[in-house]
Description:
Blueprint: H1 23-45, H2 48-71, H3 77-100, H4 106-127, H5 137-155, H6 163-208
Amino acid sequence: MRLSGASGRSEQPDPDRDDVLTVPNLVTVLRFCGVPVFVWLVLSARDYGAAVVVLAVMGSTDWVDGYLARRFNQTSRLGRIMDPIADRLALIVVFITLAVAGIAPAWLLYVVFVPDAVLVATSLWLFHSHPDLPVLWIGKIRTALFLVGTPLLLLSAVTSPAAPVLRALALGILIAGCALHLAAAVVYFRAILAKYRSLGRRGAGTGDA
């Protein structure tokens, strides 16, 4: 367990290093810690304005940890796995919270949760762990759309003349994000199967040798 890369020296990044205590990983953990704060603000305090601020901070740190990992050569296998898992769990909890509060439609939660559940089940079945696949551009755009549409949807719950317009805009953005989410799920599912077959062939080749 090391705290490394703090000097900011320009070194060749090693995405397979096993560092745990890195600044990007800490930012990821702190981002996920904002989830219970968001839940409390929406369901208990009913302070939607503050909840939007929390969402904005969480969304901005999603970019910050990636930048820090590249800038200070702190990319690691743990960070590559933990970051998307934390993002997906946070997003699902946020959508559940908004659905319970009557702000988000139930179908939004199902469209996000079901494909992820299939991918997780397939990964655990085939690899007994995370498949450690590279992040796709379609997934990055999907995440960006969710990060924009979700705060807009929450803002539409605040009483104002622009509320219907904000809700329509938010739902349009979220529908586009859901479409990309489904497309990304198909691509990742195929990538999981391809990696499994590749490892199987490699293992067979090693056995023959």
